[in-house]
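User: I'm writing a tutorial on reading structure tokens. Could you give me a worked example: one chain, its sequence, then its tokens, then a sentence or two explaining what the tokens reveal?
Assistant: Sure. Here is the example chain.
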Amino acid sequence: MLKRSVSHLDKMAKSQVAEWLSGIETIICSTDGVLWQENQPIEGAVEAFNAIRAKGKRSLIVTNSCCLTKSDLFQKTKDLGFKVKEQDVFSSAASISNYLIERKFNKKVLVLGGEGICRDLTSAGFCSAVNHKRPHGDGRMDWVRSMVLDPDVGAVLVTREDGMETNQLLVACNYLQNPKVLFLATSTDAFQTLGNKRVPDAGTIVAAIEIIVQRKPTVLGKPNPRILGKLLESGEIKPDKTLMIGNSLKSDILFANICGFQSLLVGCENGVLEEAEKIKKEGDEKKMNLVPDTFLASFGSFLEFLCTEVKSGKDKDKKAQESKSGQVEQKIK
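And here are its predicted structure tokens:
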């Protein structure tokens, strides 16, 4: 009914939204820009998320961010007030490790990213200790000419890194000149928003490397379904009864459409709503997988529909009880 329609939930009848939500069993939430911004929960997000769990729906948190280890990410989620189980928190780190394990990868990984992913890779048995430092006093050109590449490096992984140095980019590009070195990324999102400000995301670095080495990365975070591990193939979650809530067309909405989930786009600060509506209007089939089913300005606003759903359910129970009582009275007469 709502598929790829960019339907604004706040302009629909609440009873219609409640009926739609009653068919949803699992809700998947992205993190940055949906549940929180850096270390602060977005207004109303904690209440909405916890209300979803209180309704008996399974609630998952899925993020491409690798700044924190999975255990630290779970701890952050709890500290911010979100009620979630550790097994229901997913990051691209596990997806990357599983991918390397499946390939029987036994070399080093050069990581352009934070310490979190490095620690997770180490825990999974992979080495990410690769030297990318320029000797003090060496000019860039002299350093490049004399650069010795480690033959044990078999992959370059690009994640979000707020403090990345240009030396890392330079070293990564030279390793990727070798087609046998894997080119991996957590996402292709270009930036994140902080109010009306923008922060470069992994996609910015990926795009720069692509231009230099003329290669495309294997993206192991959203929209790649493998980020969910075995949940899909095992049937533990049913795609048609699952709702993906996110703020990125390329990661969240594409992920939802690839997996067969329903989708809700939230937030409008980064121009994604206008982009989605433009794609829908133009009807380009190659881009329609970027179009969400529904839209809300903020995830916090989702709470009012959950409350409506509770009320709607109570009204149905009441009507059913009244009908049953009426039937009994009729029989007595």
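What the tokens reveal: The two ends are 45 Å apart (CA to CA). Confidence is low (pLDDT under 50) at residues 310-320.
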